[in-house]
Design a protein that fits this description.
Blueprint lengths: L2 H33 L9 H6 L3 H7 L5 H9 L8 H13 L7 H23 L3 H22 L4 H27 L13 H11 L3 H8 L5 H10 L7 H13 L5 H15 L3 H4 L4 H23 L15
């Protein structure tokens, strides 16, 4: 397979996953703000930090109010992690691969791109925001399902799968990091009962709440949420599961020794973490180390399979 084809497939998978994750985060944050008591110091700024775009945001906006934050995350072309930028990049990558990817996936992504462009203004203003975001999520999942169900599971598919799971693992660590850092104080008082609401928002940001309750069988607690989202082998958005998916994909690719060995080492790091301790201290440092490791994994995949002289697509910190 040509290196540039592999790279575009990989980035298409990443950008499609990024658009879906951003839409889910905005949706959950909107509902969380309705559940928390009036006057609680919690707003839209955490979502900007989740995308890693805080420096870019404050370069162009004066405050992180709802209007500015939504414009930045939904449609700002200067933000490579906005839904608009992600869909545009995914579409552009897929446009050049129409002989590799099933036509139905291209048609659906092209339709989604047009739909999003036609409805950003209403979503930012608050009109039809929920159905708009739901449509983004549903169509991204539909495209992922189309690729899984109609694309030959050969090397081309494994590059899409690798990109999707690397982006998904990165998004999971970012959501845990920012959401847990902004949790309400764990002392007795009027706000203490709302801590569980925010841990639930962590799960809901990853569509993990129902599967958590099915697997854990106890009330939502910080330590159990961290264990589930870091180490559960069966949940598709846990860090450990994403790494396992990448390992399987790399096993099917040639010249895989360097990136595959790195994935195995990273899986061990995640599985051996003592999450009960992380719930009290050291969580941010642990997540920092994971995000650095995911960036290095991306570098190893790029060095192994992609042409280094071809400029990498615009992205946040995991891009070259």
């Amino acid at each position: 397979m040509l290196s540039r084809v592999a790279e575009r497939l990989y980035w298409m998978g990443r950008y499609l996953e990024r658009a879906e994750g951003t839409a889910r985060n905005i949706n959950v944050n909107t509902h969380l703000l309705l559940d928390l008591p009036k006057g609680t110091a919690f707003g839209w700024e955490p979502l900007i930090f989740i995308t890693g775009g805080e420096e870019l945001f404050f370069r162009h906006y004066r405050d992180a109010g709802q209007q500015n934050a939504l414009e930045f995350m939904l449609a700002d072309p200067r933000n490579p992690s906005s839904i608009g930028s992600s869909l545009q990049q995914a579409r552009e990558n897929l446009r050049t691969l129409r002989d590799v990817v099933p036509r139905e996936a291209w048609e659906k992504l092209n339709h989604l791109h047009r739909y999003a462009n036609d409805h950003y203004e209403q979503a930012i203003a608050g009109r039809s925001r929920f159905p708009f975001l739901t449509q983004i999520i549903d169509d991204c999942q539909l495209i992922t399902g189309l690729l899984t169900g109609t694309m030959s599971h050969d090397e081309a598919y494994e590059f899409v799968r690798t990109g999707r799971n690397l982006e998904r693992a990165d998004m999971t660590t970012r959501i845990i990091d920012v959401r847990s850092a902004s949790l309400l104080p764990k002392h007795t008082g009027d706000l203490a009962p709302f801590a569980n609401i925010q841990w639930m928002s962590v799960l809901k940001s990853l569509s993990a709440y129902q599967m958590y309750r099915r697997q854990v069988h106890v009330r939502v607690s910080g330590a159990e949420v961290l264990r589930f989202l870091f180490q559960d082998a069966g949940f598709p958005r846990s860090v450990y599961h994403c790494l396992g998916e990448m390992q399987q994909s790399l096993n099917a690719l040639p010249r895989n020794e360097v990136p595959r060995r790195y994935v195995v080492r990273l899986k061990r790091q995640v599985s051996e973490a003592i999450v009960q301790h992380l719930a009290h201290e050291g969580l941010h440092e642990f997540i920092d180390s994971l995000q650095v490791a995911l960036g290095k994994l991306h570098d190893r995949i790029r060095a192994t399979y992609f042409l280094t002289e071809v400029p990498a697509p615009k992205s946040r910190s995991l891009a070259a």
